[in-house]
Amino acid sequence: MAKWIKFIGKRIIYMLVTILLISSVTFFLMQKLPGSPYGNEEKITSAQKKVMNERYGLDKPVAEQYLLYMAGIARGDFGISLQFGDQPVGKIIAARIGPSVQLGIQAIILGTVVGIILGIISAMFQNTWIDTSTSLTAILGRSVPNFVFAVLLQLIFAIHLQWLPIGLWDQGFYSTVLPTIALSFAPMADAARFVRTEMIDVLHSDFIELARATGIGEWEIAARHGLRNAVIPLITILGPMVASLLVGSLVIEKIFAVPGIGEQFIKSILSNDYFTIMGLTILYSALLVAVILVVDILYVLIDPRIRLSEGDEE
Amino acid sequence: MGKIKRKVMMLVGALFVVSSLVGCGANTSGDDASSNKKSASNLADKQVLNWIATVELPTADSVKEYDTASSEQIDIFAEGLYKINGENEPVPAIADGRPKATNDKKTEYTINIKKGLKWSNGDPLTAKDFVFAWQRLFDPKTAAQNASTYFNIKNAQAINEGKKDKSELGIKALSDTKLQVNLEYPDAYFEETLSDENLFPQNEKFVTAKGDKYGSSSENTLSNGPFVLTDWDGTGLTWKYKKNKNYWDKKNIKLDQINVQVVKETATGINLYQDGTVDAAALSGDFIKQYKDDPGYKKVLALRATNLELGTSSNKDLQNENLRKALSLSIDRNELVNNVLADGSRAATGAIPKGIAKSPKDGTDFADAAGNLVQHDSAKAKQLWNKAKKELGKNKVSFTLLTTDDDVSKDVGEYLQSQIETALPGVKINLSNVPAKVRFQKMMSYKFDLALGGWTGDFDPVSYLNQFYSTFEHNHAKFNDPKYDQLIDKIKTKDLTDLNHRWEDLLTAQKYLLDKQVVIPLDQGAENYLVNTKVKGIVTHNLGAPLDITRAYFVK
């Protein structure tokens, strides 16, 4: 137990340092963005700009702005969004993150479950037409951009069959089905590819031969011995994918008119909405390092070859 | 597959465009006002409009608003002294009658306000609410981005720059129903200016109580217009309007409720429209061609002038007038709007777009009165280019054309490149596609060759011409001609006493500008919509927001 506390405690400290580094670098890089954060840039005068810079504290030296911003973060104040009528960034993120997270979680679950099943089937029927067709599905899922799927899904299931809404966020779970499926193709394809390769590897190893010799059925071997081993590399690639899915997808949210956070990041960068850029960068990096921590913990739990050692490698 | 991918990519590209359009409109609403009476019996039982918007509502604070997305919405729940009707003319809204000039210079006016007006919370709406809102507009603490548009109000600029106290602003409440406004110089389009959302009244008690939160959600916003804003959380993709019981003209408001849904993807919007989920859709790109014969199609010309801007001050070659003229003559604007843009845009005929002003004498539109000042003539272009070559002493010139990196701007850039290079052998155009903020920055540094830019003026044609006034900051060409400046000064001051003469001077100034080819006008943008044919009473106009849905109603 003490080992665990030490392990996790250390990781959390690294996490905080990482987030601090990322946000500091972003803050200073952001100053290099051309133009001002004011939307009416085409018509604004320089005298007005000066007045507004004073109002928003953007006339201060960058170092001072940085310290003020960090002090604000420590108090839980993420600043205001200039493209959203000076509303607090925290409020904007809080209001828009929900749908993105919901879609992200649903897509990850659907994608990995289907992907793992496809991967196992592929591996079990290696080099048959079943393998070829599932592999082809996986390649398509990976290489065709998800907005193509989104438009096709919308066309087939909403417009022609009229089973599901075209878009909007007003019918509860029904509204989430098509965007979830559209988002799930990438994790599905990745999961299927990895699980297939790993399964084939594992199924040819000696201990599986031994299991076969004891007379256990192929499917049971695959489920009990193969899958556990095959899933480990999957966890590595799923980590970053979870993080990126949770923060939303610009295109999917646009196509289905979902009130998510996906578009805000791009929009804030294009409009120099400094505090929104910072808020979302911090959110994104926090999610990413948190996911990495979870992956590390899962590794220890799933793979008995990795053990918590007193010294830890470092 | 590649083809499908490209198509879908085009769709996605198109949606970036629609959100960036700024617009106003042409009057295409002949059916509306007149049919109002006779159709009263034909009214449908359910009067709930499912409306659309293409971007979120950035702010509901009328003072801070600076974009079409906000002004369109604010017009639904708030109202100012005047409003623009379907003929692009100002009519009294909150005001009782027209403004009365009280001095000879026409810089002091009194305006009466209707009696017994109320805010949606029941508070009385008085002249003081205008004084408060206007002072707030120029208060540097508010940081209102559109403040400079109204620097003609006495002391506004000094207040905005922190040099004077806001109490010195040229507005006074003489009584609860009487306002006095002082201007720096006369304004030929004073009533139109007063219809702008930034000059709407605000309730001091309410705004002060809400502080920084004012206009950030429906609870934090007060209405005085036909409808009350509800169910808006400040960032969401949906909100509603309910009929305002305290509105002075409520008997003419037939809709009980308007539900607004933001749909950014054009294709999704059209699907929702055809499915009956919403009563309107915004069109863009290829969809316009597809739906332009649909009975629900509506096009509204915007007052955005897109120009090929010339960095005359930094590029020596462009200082040659014959070369500038050759460039302009080599561009086929009809092909540009019909085949390249194909979005309902109008080929420019001058520096001032169509629909902004009518002749005081006979009501002719300014653009029609001016005639076509930007011809396409490849032969003449070549001739002038040959002359320019001799004058410049070289056979080859090359320019970098700066455009924003969205699909439409890139297409226009490529089109201009091919037109110019084909018509004028020896002229080389290099394209530089950059983010909008970078383009603005380069243009404001006055160091560029050619740039695809534009201007959306105010209510007065002179606001387009003023762009080339020597000391104006956004005079990207740094055009400096005392004769032109004098003419603009005259239009802005002396001419105000004789509007017919002013009209002539406006025509002269535009011609002077284009004779020297200080700028190369290209096109005038348009907004395109599909609207449920059962919905009547929508008013379209060029000035202000393109569509006014406040008096809309459903027929059976």
UniProtKB/TrEMBL annotation, chain A:
Keyword terms, alphabetized: Cell membrane, Membrane, Transmembrane, Transmembrane helix, Transport
Lineage: Bacteria, Bacillati, Bacillota, Bacilli, Bacillales
Protein name as it appears in the record: ABC transporter permease
Main location: membrane
Domain ABC transmembrane type-1: 97-299
Residues forming coiled coils: none
Cellular localisation: Cell membrane
Superkingdom per UniProt: Bacteria
From TrEMBL, chain B:
Record's signal peptide: 1-25
Superkingdom assignment: Bacteria
Coiled coil: none
PROSITE patterns referenced in this protein's UniProt entry, alphabetically: PROKAR_LIPOPROTEIN (PS51257)
Alphabetical list of InterPro entries matching this protein: Peptide/Ni-bd (IPR030678), SBP_5 (IPR039424), SBP_5_dom (IPR000914)
Key words, A-Z: Signal, Transport
Domain Solute-binding protein family: 89-472
Subcellular location: Cell envelope
Broad class of where this protein is predominantly found: other
Protein family (similarity comment): Belongs to the bacterial solute-binding protein 5 family.
Database matches in PANTHER family: PERIPLASMIC BINDING COMPONENT OF ABC TRANSPORTER, PERIPLASMIC OLIGOPEPTIDE-BINDING PROTEIN-RELATED
Protein name in UniProt: Peptide ABC transporter substrate-binding protein
Organism per entry: Sporolactobacillus shoreicorticis
